[in-house]
């Protein structure tokens, strides 16, 4: 019931608020360990979230974990999606990072689960059975962040990205990459009770 009503009951990434204004927060995120899979979405009938099942099987979200221990790994939030360019409509899966790139003329998607903070190094995480799953570390990073409720439609996200970029540049922050969309609730959460964030990496 808590998930329907928007309560976030799973682990979320650790961060420090460096600066806060009416327009945004500047956050410094701690380093984290990720499980990722890179694939051509056409293998999944064009579904950009098609790698979700591969990663869900690795952590044991849907049954026996597909790792060498085998060890069940807790889910985390938010869902984070990164695109190669503008905004896109994204189906909710948790916890996931998706980013687009190109390889051999195809548009590839990389999907990532952020693993719980108890895994400090990549080698501490259970080894995947599926060789498509790669475990990697991501170092400390800084983002300008704006929070909003409701459904994260393409237009809602695009409007906030544009406004956040302008606010960051106005205040002298240097943008160093594409925006991320973070969604903290599953799709069955009532829309007015959802928590979303647009995050833009800065120096």
Report on this structure:
It comes from Salix dunnii. InterPro entries: Reg_factor_effector_dom_sf, SOUL_heme-bd. It holds the Pfam family SOUL. This is SOUL heme-binding family protein. This protein starts with 14 loop residues before the first strand and ends with a strand. It is built from two helices and ten strands. It has helices spanning 52-59, 154-170, and strands spanning 15-20, 25-29, 32-39, 79-82, 97-103, 106-114, 134-138, 141-148, 180-183, 196-202. With 203 residues, it is mainly beta. It has a single domain (15-202), classed as Regulatory factor, effector binding domain (Multidrug-efflux Transporter 1 Regulator Bmrr, Chain A, Alpha-Beta Barrel), CATH 3.20.80. The protein has a ten-stranded mixed β-sheet with strand order 1-2-8-10-9-4-5-6-3-7, covered by helices on one side. Helices cover 12% and strands 31% of the residues.
SSE diagram, text form:
Blueprint: E1 15-20, E2 25-29, E3 32-39, H1 52-59, E4 79-82, E5 97-103, E6 106-114, E7 134-138, E8 141-148, H2 154-170, E9 180-183, E10 196-202
Parallel strand pairs: 4-5
Antiparallel strand pairs: 1-2, 2-8, 3-6, 3-7, 4-9, 5-6, 8-10, 9-10
InterPro entries: Reg_factor_effector_dom_sf, SOUL_heme-bd
Protein name: SOUL heme-binding family protein
Organism: Salix dunnii
Brief summary of the model shown:
The chain has a single domain (15-202), classed as Multidrug-efflux Transporter 1 Regulator Bmrr, Chain A (Alpha-Beta Barrel), CATH 3.20.80.10. It is built from 2 helices and 10 strands, in the order E-E-E-H-E-E-E-E-E-H-E-E. It has helices spanning 52-59, 154-170, and strands spanning 15-20, 25-29, 32-39, 79-82, 97-103, 106-114, 134-138, 141-148, 180-183, 196-202.
